[in-house]
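LysR family transcriptional regulator, Herminiimonas glaciei. Tokens?
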Amino acid sequence: MEWTIDRMKQFVVTAEAGSISAAARRLGKAQSAVSTAIALLEADLGFDLFDRSRRSVQLTPAGEVMLLEARELLRQAEGLDQRAQSFAAGQQPKLTLALDEALPYLAVGALVKEISERFPSLELTQFNGTATEVAEYVENQRASVAFHFDRGPCSLSFAQKHIGSVAQGIFVARGHPLTKIKKVTQRDLAKHRQLLMHMEDFADPALSPSVWRSDSFYSIAAMVADGIGWAILPLNIAEYEEYRLHLQELPCDEFTLPVLSVRMLWLQGHQPDATTQWVQKRLAELLHTIPWSL
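Tokens:
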């Protein structure tokens, strides 16, 4: 068979337009050219696509089936053409991101949606995990770049860049004894169990002699919501729909909580490509648009 994409397109347009003359006007071609293209396509396929015994153009049963196939073929051809144009313009064919599960979900969700719209030909792989896990994805070269909360010095094998910050607060479960104190002090906090973020080679300093630890902010938030203790949490975690009705922020004027820095990690010697640079810039912008970011 020697049918072409162009003839398939003329067939589809004719079927949708309802006549060869209407199809010719839509395609900007002579009516005779469209008629010849369809006749040649039918000759290549070995059967009629249209029933010519009637005044109006109507598909044969085989033509109805072929119309579905032709539409799918043209869709795939358009996708191939778009992808080829993207690659010719310098866009990377694939991108693998490793994202800290504790990053603000509103910013991350908006970022992924915008990536799909801006880079329709991109093949994206997304890994999620704790701050330590996403760094390991890059170190093991399973991901090209990671975005996570800065939890201390990173390996010398990484290059890094600060892209934003997220505010923190002290939280307990609603009804916890600490909620009955108007101005909470460090001495008050020390009387109750503290739930701490803990990862390999890093741990937040304890303010209470009674401590439980976890490597996940979501796990810590769940324990706080269950009344197990108090914790310092990123405001976006406390605002997560599963926790916000169960958590209460405590005012404590004795010390100022540091913000959590968000950084991008990649391997030394691997310069981020243009697509990755756009992702970094856009995530930085999105982090600045949410109320708990700084």
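The chain has three domains: 5-88, 94-165+260-287, 168-250.
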